[in-house]
Specification:
Blueprint: H1 15-20, H2 43-49, E1 67-68, E2 81-88, E3 100-102, E4 105-109, E5 115-119, E6 125-129, E7 151-153, E8 156-160, E9 165-170, E10 176-181, E11 196-198, E12 201-204, E13 216-221, E14 227-232, H3 247-254, H4 264-267, E15 269-270, E16 277-280, E17 285-289, E18 293-294, H5 298-301, E19 313-318, E20 324-329, E21 344-349, E22 358-363, E23 369-374, E24 380-385, E25 392-395, E26 401-403, E27 414-416, E28 430-432, E29 437-444, E30 447-449, H6 478-486, E31 489-496, E32 501-508, E33 516-519, E34 523-527, E35 532-537, E36 543-548, E37 558-562, E38 565-572, H7 576-581, E39 596-602, H8 628-641, H9 643-646, H10 668-675, H11 694-713
Parallel strand pairs: 1-33
Antiparallel strand pairs: 2-39, 3-4, 4-5, 5-6, 7-8, 8-9, 9-10, 11-12, 12-13, 13-14, 15-18, 16-17, 17-19, 19-20, 21-22, 22-23, 23-24, 25-26, 27-30, 28-29, 29-31, 31-32, 33-34, 34-35, 35-36, 37-38, 38-39
Helix pairs in contact: 8-11, 10-11
Length: 718
């Protein structure tokens, strides 16, 4: 633990100290006459007070609508917004955190699960907690070492740590109250999602399906950290009970959807719950989204061809016991990394008989269809494509996709949309209940899918069953990257879930834009990949205000009020899955700038400092070498082992080193020392000796140097 600049608190927070002494006496809801302050944050307070003066839970409310009741900042005065304060986060990696604000204090996270407590009015630092993660864990993180935020409850701040820990921190000091390891740390599990807290239980899932794990959702006691219940999302290899809340569900409906052979019996099956977890107060249940299969390719995962429940599903369980209530599978037999972990929003819509109100769950998952299902039963109500979809012609009467035959890809690549980054990814969407509109940060990022011909002989590691080098030329001039860049699109869609179509759309120049905030002031806020933050008219989509952030604005914004002033806030930073795995998607190299918290108010006059790091010398550090056969072999191994962090075609966004210009690429021994010997493991670059031979490592070096020289000859390093 590393506590930095610890200072005493003032105002209402001082009252929390007395209440903290009572924290071990039982559930906070069972007591009466609680003192005001942080220690009184319980289910009732989150339910009634959040998304107004305070922002007490990740989605703003338990329904996760991300719609604030505040209207001081509105369509008439939003043009007067200026920077109130900024705070530098100590990282140049991905930042995805939604700030939590309670009693005038903001809690936010950055890369490597570091937690910050800041004065929400001034940005002054109160404390910092660093969980001291072994940087070697970074190789287990498919999509950067990000963290989406914390939960608050009963005097504690809860954070999921990327190495699999769930920790409860003292809200006043940042000191650890309890720490629990929630995963088998010998396996490639990670945690990047924000915990949710309800009725004395803190809920957390995990990630890692790309590398072969078995997913589950867990509930822990908020006071002691003891495990209360666990729901596995896929069966164990023997299809036997685990002594878990999910046992009955698999005996009754789950096991028959899986065969008895295939990679899932050794690689876990996937189905990680890495993002959306929603408390449905009305039905006393938790609704959560389930991720992709492991491996992605069902031909290898489960040759029987079953639906593989509960992959790519929305699942509801009892909040107290974790027992199964219902499910709806968005992508049966998932074959494409079409997770259903994206934002789930609960709302009351006029979809009942005769226009009566019906409580529903809405989701725009990766597969490109916007779903509305009954929140109490999971019954399918509607589903419509919100982005271009070519893997299915539509949905049948039960909501099952009508697949195109070629989408069950084989040896020939199938250029598919959406690709594995989805029509919508983790960036949270929002819902305005007054206008009846859901705001989707949508995108188009196609992907050529083809079977991996080496899957059966590959060592355990990046576990997809997809040949990412299919159709990729071994020597790719910059024009190839430009062509790929041109295929990327982004848009903000105001989707009407009753009319089942967009009401308006704003086009962006690129994919991977930010999460969305809706407000009663008639505004929708969204950051963009290009580094600006904008406010749109919620009813029409007209842009009313924009401000340069000087870094990527992908996070979900928040808003709150202190001393009669409304603030709007967002965390910034380059990185995350797109920046690492799609370097070609940037028109220019991004500055590896330090992430920030940037907070605005009417009349703010502060500046955002440029904290970019020194530019890289974009020249190869050794002559190109190797035969075409050697370079082609390097293409395959680079695509399988390196591209997810350093970018396809050898083109990095600049967040992690661009290997074409790396000093070690110019020296065979230094290259081997890093890739095979693990000389930079302390920085997160672990040894790949279990996955690559010395000849394959040298072939990768030949490939990246060739790519570098090809780019320079074409007139530049991009």
């Amino acid at each position: 633990m590393n506590i930095r600049n610890l200072r005493s608190w003032a105002g209402p927070a001082l009252l929390a100290g007395t209440a903290l002494l009572l924290a071990a006496c039982g559930d906070r809801q069972a007591r009466v006459a609680e003192p005001e302050g942080f220690a009184a944050v319980d289910t009732a307070r989150i339910s009634t007070a959040s998304a107004a003066d305070e922002w007490l839970t990740y989605g703003g409310t338990y329904d996760e609508q991300r719609h604030s009741k505040l209207n001081q900042i509105n369509k008439e005065n939003v043009s007067q917004l200026g920077v109130a304060w900024t705070y530098d986060l100590a990282t140049n990696r991905g930042v995805e955190s939604t700030p939590i604000v309670v009693d005038g204090v903001m809690y936010v996270t950055s890369a490597w699960s570091v937690v910050y407590a800041l004065d929400a009015k001034t940005g002054a630092e109160k404390w910092v907690y660093d969980p001291a993660v072994d940087r070697a864990v970074g190789v287990k993180a498919c999509c950067d070492v990000v963290n989406r935020g914390v939960a608050v409850y009963d005097g504690k701040v809860y954070v999921g740590v990327i190495d699999g820990r769930l920790e409860a921190l003292n809200a006043e000091t940042g000191e650890v109250i309890w720490s629990k390891v929630t995963v088998d740390q010998s396996l490639p599990y990670t945690i990047t999602g924000a915990p949710r807290v309800v009725n004395g239980k803190v809920l957390i899932g995990n990630g890692g399906a790309e590398l072969g794990v078995r997913g589950y959702l867990s509930a822990y006691d908020t006071s002691s950290g003891d495990l209360v219940w666990r729901f596995y999302t896929v069966p164990n290899p023997l299809k036997q009970p685990d002594g878990a809340a999910s046992d009955d569900a698999f005996v009754k409906i789950g096991n028959v959807t899986w065969g008895d052979t295939g990679a899932w019996t050794t690689d876990g099956g996937g189905g990680t719950v890495w993002d959306s977890i929603v408390y449905d107060e009305v039905n006393n249940q938790i609704i959560f989204g389930v991720g992709n299969g492991s491996p992605w390719n069902r031909t290898f995962r489960d040759p029987s061809g079953g639906d593989n429940l509960f992959l790519s599903s929305i699942v509801a369980v009892d909040v107290d016991t974790g027992t199964y209530k219902w499910h709806f599978q968005t992508t049966p037999g998932d074959n494409w990394d079409y997770t259903a972990t994206q934002t789930i929003i609960l709302a009351d819509l006029p979809l009942g008989e005769g226009g009566a109100t019906r409580r529903v769950a809405m989701q725009a998952p990766k597969n490109g269809f916007f779903y509305v299902v009954d929140a109490a039963t999971g019954q399918y109500i509607s589903g419509d494509a919100y982005v271009p979809v070519n893997w299915a012609t539509g949905l049948d009467a039960n909501g099952r996709p009508v697949e195109v035959a070629a989408a069950r890809y084989g040896k020939e690549p199938f250029q598919q949309t959406p690709g594995p980054l989805g029509g919508h990814n983790w960036q949270p969407m929002a819902y305005n209940p007054d206008l009846g509109l859901a705001y989707i940060p949508a995108q188009e990022i196609p992907q050529a899918y083809a079977e991996d011909p080496r899957f059966a002989s590959r060592p355990t590691g990046w576990n997809t069953g997809i040949d990412f080098s299919a159709g990729v030329p071994p020597i790719a001039p910059p024009e190839v990257a430009k062509m790929l860049r041109a295929s990327l699109k982004g848009r903000l869609i105001a989707w009407d879930p009753v009319a089942r179509k967009p009401r308006w759309t704003v086009e962006h120049e690129n994919a991977w834009n930010g999460g969305v905030l809706s407000t009663a002031g008639g505004l929708v806020f969204q950051g963009r990949l290009t580094g600006d933050f904008s406010a749109f008219d919620a009813a029409t989509g007209d842009k009313l205000w924009t401000h340069e952030l000087k870094s990527g604005g992908a996070s979900g914004p928040g808003t709150y009020m202190i001393d009669g002033e409304q603030y709007v806030t967002i965390t910034t930073g380059w990185g995350s899955a797109f920046a690492l795995a799609a370097g070609f998607g940037y028109d220019e190299k991004v500055s590896a700038s330090v992430g920030k918290v940037v907070t605005f108010k009417i009349g703010g006059t502060q500046e955002i400092a440029d904290t970019g790091l020194a530019p890289i010398d974009a020249t190869p550090k050794a002559p190109a070498f190797g035969s075409l056969a050697m370079i082609s072999e390097g293409t395959v191994h680079y695509a399988r082992n390196c591209a997810v962090c350093h970018g396809p075609l050898g083109v990095s966004s600049g967040v992690l080193p661009d290997l074409r210009w790396s000093a070690i690429s110019g020296n065979k021994d230094a290259w081997k020392g890093v890739v095979l010997d693990g000389n930079l493991a302390a920085n997160g670059m672990v040894s790949f000796a279990d996955y690559l031979t010395p000849d394959e490592v040298e072939a990768i070096r030949a490939y990246v140097l060739t790519q570098g020289h090809t780019a320079v000859k074409a007139g530049g390093g991009k």
